[in-house]
Write a structure and sequence with these properties.
Elements: H1 9-24, H2 31-42, H3 49-59, H4 62-67, H5 70-74, H6 81-104, H7 113-124, E1 131-137, E2 143-151, H8 161-170, E3 175-181, H9 191-206, E4 210-217, E5 222-224
């Protein structure tokens, strides 16, 4: 570097951000600074603070940014595929960690219900279409597998009780938990939700499989059919 050349101001800012992050792994950092750190990976030669704040303005929170769709993210000026990939790596990592916590837990899933809710929220709550999942449990009520049975539209998803039971038998499950999301944010079950849940429950009884619960997820709320006496 010659005498006339000056190091860009953002380089010093980046180093300070990294130092602060490593001091407490980001616990004291606001959302926009965590986003800055991610954007620094994807965009190595630019001040990314304005871009981080622009993302938060559009998607409202760190979680909102990480869970936004590719097209929505790339509609923000300055966001390219490298940045989208970094965001999606964070999302995939969060989902994988929450699933592995469930899968490796020695306790029955009902003993750590919060972990199950965390997994369902991280994997489904921000989807813009309805998705119906079945979580399979063994005879000790430990998680053994899951399956996305159907994907639908923003307001509905078709569920087939026969396919749910067939999958449970194939997985050698002793019990199941159903989960689907409501992109609208309102987790109140529809009449169709209630009817198909009752049908699945009756079908499961015929083959001695226990339906533990059906949960509806949104970004902020959870509805449990069991807690409301429907199962």
């Amino acid at each position: 570097m010659t005498v006339q050349e000056k190091q860009p101001d953002y380089l010093g800012h980046r180093e300070r951000l990294r130092t602060r992050f490593l001091a407490d792994e980001g616990k004291s950092m606001p959302d926009y600074e965590l986003l800055e750190l991610l954007l620094m990976i994807a965009i190595p030669r630019r001040d990314v603070k304005p871009l981080a704040k622009k993302l938060l303005s559009k998607f409202k929170s760190f979680a909102g940014v990480i869970n936004a769709g590719k097209e929505d993210l790339m509609s923000v000026d300055g966001i390219k595929e490298n940045s989208v990939a970094v965001m999606k790596i964070v999302k995939a990592g969060a989902i994988r960690m929450s699933w592995q916590k469930l899968e490796n837990d020695d306790k029955p899933v009902i003993a750590d219900w919060d972990s199950l809710m965390d997994y369902c929220r991280s994997s489904m709550a921000y989807n813009n279409i309805e998705e119906f999942r079945v979580i399979f449990l063994n005879n000790k009520l430990k998680v053994i597998d899951e399956e996305v049975q159907q994907r639908g539209t923003a307001t509905q998803v078709n569920v087939h009780p026969r396919e749910v039971v067939k999958s449970a038998i194939n997985k050698e499950a002793s019990a199941i938990i159903l989960a689907h999301n409501h992109p609208s944010g309102d987790t109140t079950p529809s009449k169709a939700d209630i009817e198909v849940t009752k049908q699945i429950n009756e079908a499961c009884k015929l083959v001695s499989i226990k339906l533990l619960d059906h949960i509806i997820i949104s970004q902020n709320t959870i509805y449990s059919f069991k807690d409301h006496g429907i199962i």
